[in-house]
Design goal:
single chain; mainly alpha; globular; 118 residues
Amino acid sequence: MKRALIAIAAAAVLLPGGAYAKPLSAFSCNDILQESRTDSSFDLSAIGTGIVDRAGDYIISHLDEKDLAKLGSICNVRSYVYAECRIHQNSSVMAAVNRLISKARRGAELPYIPICGA
């Protein structure tokens, strides 16, 4: 239980003025897919916007350099989050994030993604 609370707290984002945004655990993969459908400027390679970025930042902060290298660039990490959510649309974002972290650590096959920036 304590470990789960730490993960939830770590996934929350501090907004300007000291207010906290919804924790990452409060979002579903459907939220990411909906965000991509309604935001005409939605771009996985853009840094600093949306749920995908927060999930990518969470992954980056929880992997060591060796495991992170298996995922490639920061843009790739965000693309993997989006791809994992497309595969498991009814799961939570945290479940998708945890699957990616586990796959990276085990060296398991990751979802196919386009080359970042292409």
